[in-house]
Specification:
One of its GO terms (cellular component) is clathrin-coated pit. Pfam families: Adaptin_N (PF01602), Alpha_adaptinC2 (PF02883). There is one protein chain. The chain is of the alpha+beta class. Helices cover 52% and strands 9% of the residues. The strands form 4 sheets. Strands 5, 6, 7, 8, 10 and 11 form a 6-stranded antiparallel beta sheet that branches. A 3-stranded antiparallel beta sheet has the order 9-12-13, with helices on one face. The protein has a two-stranded antiparallel sheet with strand order 1-2.
Length: 821
């Protein structure tokens, strides 16, 4: 068999390939020749063939068939064979394949070899791909080499020990005696790997960390080494851009950071050397900046002196002036982390940070924007808002939403006056336009409502802001609402803050009608405008007939929401005109509802928000049932009964608004209303039902079941039974099934009945309906029907399906007569 081509020739041949297909054909041909050579046990060229196979592996082609050949090379006595064999093992083998265990004995023999280079190969391989089993078997040999006087082997043994500790942490104590003299070594390679080993031990074991702090006095040794590096003269062996061994300096600083964290004594011992590093390191080259950055991180992480922390922040401030974008970005990110603890020191660099808002790099812009908002406080709010509003005006669209939200929050916390607050928010709405978040409009409306003395000024400013420009939809929505609420103040010209404008009622209506017919107006904006026009019917005196005409026109709008509003407003004009002025009267002052209790909140700018006084507890809202009754009163009917809910698992109690939507306009056909029970009384089933098990008092009455709902794969069946202790009670068992291919989660069933009935919902069996009808959810409803009237029910279903929230309403009127007679 002819001799195979050399690796150099193979590389040259593959590089001549013009297409990928041609390259693949060359590789396949060479792989076939290598397989043939392996089958013939050709020891002469095994090393050459494995080397070529490794090159193919690096190109991305499969080379797993060479794994056993690597083991044969490792077992060879020739150094050249061992070198390729170990390299192949590191590339082709890992701990997921059992083949690697076959080389354990070879590695053990090579660790005890008389040649240091063979020992080095074995250490490299074990440190690269050794499994936990191999590490347990060979840890003793590694520990011996860690104590040897040969610096070449000690540095490799230290790195191998790091791998052993990661794989088998309980072997950490074995290497503890060997670490005592590692830092006394003069060789920088050994020092570097020793620091890596000590860092790994300290990070993985709190006991080791305490041991090195107290017993080994590790901090003074590291301080001594770092000082020698700083003060030493030029050394060509370790010099990088005029700095002595920056890699070792960075490693030592990281280890000092771990040792000084939450430890006063260790932090005190390293304060001086950190100050020396921070002041003596050359910053003209990137190498020096890397060391300074690690120094800053160490200072910020340990319990350092206040002066040292100020020095660290000043270093980051100098980084902001660097031409390198990466250094500026790192500085902004670091300042953002430290602004909460060292606010005043960061505040000194405010002008430099604000200048970064003008940077061309979008990442730097975003970090500068976040840091600028963190620096805002009551003292600099006017200046910072001016800069941020300028940034909002010129920034890219992807920044506008976050910037607008940040300005809203900052203005709410630190606004020097109500007028300034309103002007700022209006400026944001004018600048950011449709990019502001959905909550901006209701928040501004609430602010305006609460600023009673600013109503005339605000409505005048908003009126002028939207004249002829309807492109900024949030601004138009707020303006429409304010004109509807305070249109009388606009027409009367009562503004004291600035010169009032002369506006007639017809001019105001012209603007609102222009909003209604504008192509730029969204459906929500038209709803605001129509409601504003309706409100003006009670604030204006001369244009009521015109308002009636506008409202009646939109009663036939193709926009369903607009049509519904117009129809309802028409009904107010025709049937309930006596109630119109009361229904459309001015909104009262709104109060913000806070869900959390009073707490002192420390702001990122260093100021604290005071908690609410403890003497006055926050007013607790009425119980859910009371809320529902209050909402039901708005329906203008006294024949709708509240439901007495039993909350399903993991779901909050439903709000009164949902009850209102659910009940709609259910009205019974006949029969006088039954008074609702008092909240303080027990549930309506007072006939001994509540004191007995749920189903013990139920007698089957042969009532046929019905399908109450069947849509979108969700089917709900009703099964009926009558209570034996109270014939007026019907027990309905609902069974929900799911025929789709995905589970329905967070399922909630709600029901409402006319007021002549009383209803109780018990807890469901689950909140998940399995797919493919493999399971069901059951829930029991008890209905008290003392009048023996025909049963009617409205149900509301909510659930999550295929990642979307689903909701549906349905009315059930097909109850069998046996269920209610």
């Amino acid at each position: 068999m002819p001799a195979p081509i050399r690796l150099r020739e193979l590389i040259r041949t593959i590089r001549t390939a013009r297409t990928q297909a041609e390259e693949r054909e060359m590789i396949q041909k060479e792989c076939a020749a290598i397989r043939s050579s392996f089958r013939e046990e050709d020891n002469t060229y095994r090393c050459r063939n494995v080397a070529k196979l490794l090159y193919m592996h690096m190109l991305g082609y499969p080379a797993h068939f060479g794994q056993l050949e690597c083991l044969k090379l490792i077992a060879s006595q020739k150094f050249t064979d061992k070198r390729i064999g170990y390299l192949g093992a590191m590339l082709l083998l890992d701990e997921r394949q059992d083949v690697h265990l076959l080389m354990t004995n070879c590695i053990k023999n090579d660790l005890n070899h008389s040649t240091q280079y063979v020992q080095g190969l074995a250490l490299c391989t074990l440190g690269c791909m050794g499994s936990s089993e191999m590490c347990r078997d060979l840890a003793g040999e590694v520990e011996k080499l860690l104590k040897t006087s040969n610096s070449y082997l000690r540095k490799k043994a230290a790195l191998c020990a790091v791998h052993v500790i990661r794989k088998v942490p309980e072997l950490m104590e074995m290497f503890l005696p060997a670490t005592k003299n590692l830092l006394n070594e003069k060789n920088h390679g050994v020092l570097h790997t020793s620091v890596v080993l000590l860092t790994e031990m300290c990070e993985r074991s709190p006991d080791m960390l305490a041991h090195f702090r107290k017993n080994e006095k590790l901090v003074p040794q590291l301080v001594r080494i770092l000082k020698n590096l700083i003060m030493s003269g030029y050394s060509p062996e370790h010099d990088v851009s005029g700095i002595s061994d920056p890699f070792l300096q960075v490693r030592i600083l990281r280890l000092l950071r771990i040792l000084g964290r939450n430890d006063d004594d260790s932090s005190e011992a390293m304060n001086d050397i950190l100050a020396q590093v921070a002041t003596n390191t050359e910053t003209s080259k990137n190498v020096g900046n890397a060391i300074l950055y690690e120094t800053v991180l160490t200072i910020m992480d340990i319990k350092s002196e206040s002066g040292l922390r100020v020095l660290a922040i000043n270093i980051l401030g100098r980084f902001l002036l660097n031409n390198d974008k990466n250094i500026r970005y790192v500085a902004l990110t670091s300042l953002l982390k430290t602004v909460q603890t060292d606010h005043n020191a960061v505040q000194r660099h405010r002008s430099t940070i604000v200048d970064c808002l003008k940077d061309l790099d979008v990442s730097i812009k975003r970090r500068a924007m976040e840091l600028s908002f963190a620096l805002v406080n009551g003292n600099n709010i006017r200046g910072m808002m001016k800069e941020l509003l300028y940034f909002l005006d010129s920034c890219e669209p992807e920044f506008k939403a976050d910037c607008a939200s940040g300005i809203f929050l900052a203005a709410e916390k630190y606004a020097p006056s109500k007028r300034w607050h309103i002007d700022t928010i209006m400026r944001v709405l004018t600048t950011a336009g449709s990019y502001v978040r959905d909550d901006a409009v209701p928040n501004l409306i609430q602010l305006i409502t609460n600023s009673v003395e600013m109503h005339a000024y605000t409505v005048q400013k908003l009126y002028k802001a939207i004249l002829g420009d309807y492109s900024q939809q949030p601004m138009v929505q707020v303006a429409s609402w304010c004109i509807g609420e305070y249109g009388d103040l606009l027409v009367s010209g009562q503004c004291e803050e600035e010169e009032p404008i002369q506006v007639t009622e017809d001019e105001v209506l012209d603007v609102l009608e222009s909003v209604l017919i504008s192509n730029m107006s969204a459906s929500v904006t038209r709803g605001y405008a129509l409601t504003a026009i309706m409100k003006l019917s009670t604030r204006f005196t001369c244009t009521v007939n015109r308002i009636k005409k506008v409202v009646s026109i939109y009663g036939s709008s193709i926009d369903v929401e607009l049509q519904q509003r117009a129809v309802e407003y028409n009904a107010l004009f025709k049937k309930y005109d006596h109630m119109r002025s009361a229904l459309l009267e001015r909104m009262p002052v709104m109060e913000k509802v806070t869900t959390n209790g009073p707490t002192d909140v420390t702001q990122p700018n260093g100021e604290a928000e005071p908690a609410a006084p403890e003497g006055k507890p926050p007013p607790s809202g009425p119980p859910p049932t009371s809320q529902a009754n209050d909402l039901l009163d708005l329906l203008g009917s006294n024949d709708i009964t509240p439901i007495i809910p039993t909350a399903p698992p993991n779901k909050p109690a439903s709000a009164g608004g949902e009850l209102l939507d659910l009940l709609g306009d259910l009205n019974p056909t006949t029969g006088p209303p039954v008074p609702a029970p008092q909240i303080s009384q027990p549930p309506f089933l007072l006939d001994g039902l509540s004191s007995q098990p749920i189903f013990n008092d139920i007698s089957a009455a042969g009532i046929p079941p019905i399908t109450a709902y069947n849509k979108n794969g969700l089917k709900i069946d009703f099964a009926f039974e009558r209570s034996s202790t109270n014939p007026s009670v019907t027990v309905i068992t609902i069974e929900a099934s799911n025929s789709t291919e995905m589970d329905m989660t967070d399922f909630v069933f709600q029901a409402a009945v006319p007021k002549t009935f009383q209803l109780q919902l018990l807890s469901p069996s689950s909140s998940v309906i399995p797919a493919f009808n493999t399971g069901t959810i059951t829930q029991v409803i008890k209905v008290l029907n003392p009048q023996k009237q025909q049963l009617r029910m409205r149900i509301k279903l909510t659930y999550n399906h295929k990642g979307s929230a689903m909701q549906d309403l349905a009315e059930v009127n097909t109850f069998p007569p046996q269920s209610w007679q």
